[in-house]
Amino acid sequence: MNAPVPRPVADAESFYANYDHLDTPLGPDGTPFAYYEAFRDAALAADRPVGWSERHGGFWVVTSFADCERIDRDAENFSNDGIIFPKYAVTEPLMLAEQDEPEHMRARRLVNLSFMPRNVTALGDAIHTAVHELMDGFIESGRADVGRILADPVPSILTAVMLGFPPEDGPMFDSWTTALTHEFITDRASAIPKIEQMYAYFERNIARRQKDPGDDILSQVINSVVDGERLSQKELLGFSTVLLIGGIENSAKLIGTALWRLGWDVELRRRLVRSPEKMNTAVDEFLRYYTPAPIGRTVKREVTIGGCTMKPGQQVMIVLPIANRDPRAFPHPDVFILDRARNTHLALGTGLHVCLGQHLIRMEARVVLNEFLARIPEYSIDMEAPRYWTKGQVQGMSRVPIRFPPGKARLSTRGAGVDAWLRHAARP
């Protein structure tokens, strides 16, 4: 019998020309990381850190760690106006995320203090309570979709608490975030009514806080005076939207993907059960290894990166899931190293535009994973139930069905926000 003819490896030019960050090919494990690794290897072999994609009208694609870091820090030549590409279905610029200086720092000063480590740590009790109330809702059954009933709810409940919204509105926030970031591209007719509902909700709550402010972040923003002026209605809507999206999407995808990995990686899971203090470095390795999002920029001035001349107005996508697997920056990049030293990944950005919620994202993941493993140290992925990797500019494992030895509920009561999520997750 003749030996099979080896399949040709796609060259770097083909990878670049066909790259679509909204529709990355999925591998046997249901994630796009085999594709990212193949793309990286082709780019390294060809010494091509930058190329041009023909998708979405054409844009530059950057894959090397050094060039991605350079662009992320280069506010003179690159604008944050292009961070989301194609744009989300919003009627106003996303405050902070899509702003350049000095407007960016002007807006950031309004909320920086709330996201500093000391203030974020104070939210630990709220996260802890939400995790255990949610777990009580499914622990006796011996099976659950922990993407839908743990990874999604915790960031939504915490975002509601921080913004001063009723926690029971959490499932609605999740629906709006999905409509903005995913459905608007795949099912616009379904997305638009949800987005309209979101804006009506924000407008009601902004008006209420203008008359009767509380001690939440939204009240703080609404009633702040910057350079002698209050923020306009359009700016307030932009703030509300970015705090909602930023507070939910990245955290949910990070936690869901980590729970999926721990479901089949028995050695890693047992090491973390034995040594929960290693969760700090584990969370950063999850961020590097399963980076949730590439990010975009718009070229402001002609500049040459990786031998390619970029023109003003062109779109650039820095592919962080590939950059964070660059062997020139990370030894053994395709190995999950629990206590990786100097894990200087770019998953949460760097420089002036480092993620506002970086400390919160890390703490949410750390608390959720440690508390989950303390109560369910042994579990496995339910291979009979569907798993689902959500594609898009923020990606991750969003459906994580598991089986485990049934346990006992601990708490006698549950918060309204948790009850709303348990009802929501029970729907087909």
Essential attributes:
428 residues; alpha+beta; Cytochrome p450; 48% helix
The CATH homologous superfamily is called: Cytochrome P450
- Rg over CA atoms: 22 Å
Can you tell me the overall shape? globular
Determine and state the CATH class.
Answer: Mainly Alpha
The tally of structural domains comes to 1
**Order of strands across the main sheet:** 1-2-8-5-3
Instruction: From the 3D structure, determine the CATH topology.
Output: Cytochrome p450
Oligomer: single chain
Q: State the order of secondary-structure elements, H for helix, E for strand.
A: HHEEHEHHHEHHHHHHHHEEEEHHEEEEH
Q: Please give the alpha-carbon distance between the first and last residues.
A: 50 Å
- What's the mean pLDDT score? 90
Structural summary, described in words:
The chain is an alpha+beta fold. It has one domain (18-426): Cytochrome P450 (Cytochrome p450). The chain contains 17 helices and 12 strands. The protein has helices spanning 12-18, 33-46, 65-73, 103-111, 117-121, 124-136, 146-151, 153-163, 170-186, 188-211, 217-222, 233-264, 266-274, 279-289, 320-323, 358-375, 416-426, and strands at residues 50-53, 59-62, 78-79, 143-145, 295-299, 303-305, 308-310, 315-318, 380-381, 388-390, 396-399, 401-403. Mean pLDDT is 90; it is low at 1-9.
Helix-strand layout with pairing:
Blueprint: H1 12-18, H2 33-46, E1 50-53, E2 59-62, H3 65-73, E3 78-79, H4 103-111, H5 117-121, H6 124-136, E4 143-145, H7 146-151, H8 153-163, H9 170-186, H10 188-211, H11 217-222, H12 233-264, H13 266-274, H14 279-289, E5 295-299, E6 303-305, E7 308-310, E8 315-318, H15 320-323, H16 358-375, E9 380-381, E10 388-390, E11 396-399, E12 401-403, H17 416-426
Parallel strand pairs: 2-8
Antiparallel strand pairs: 1-2, 3-5, 4-12, 5-8, 6-7, 9-12, 10-11
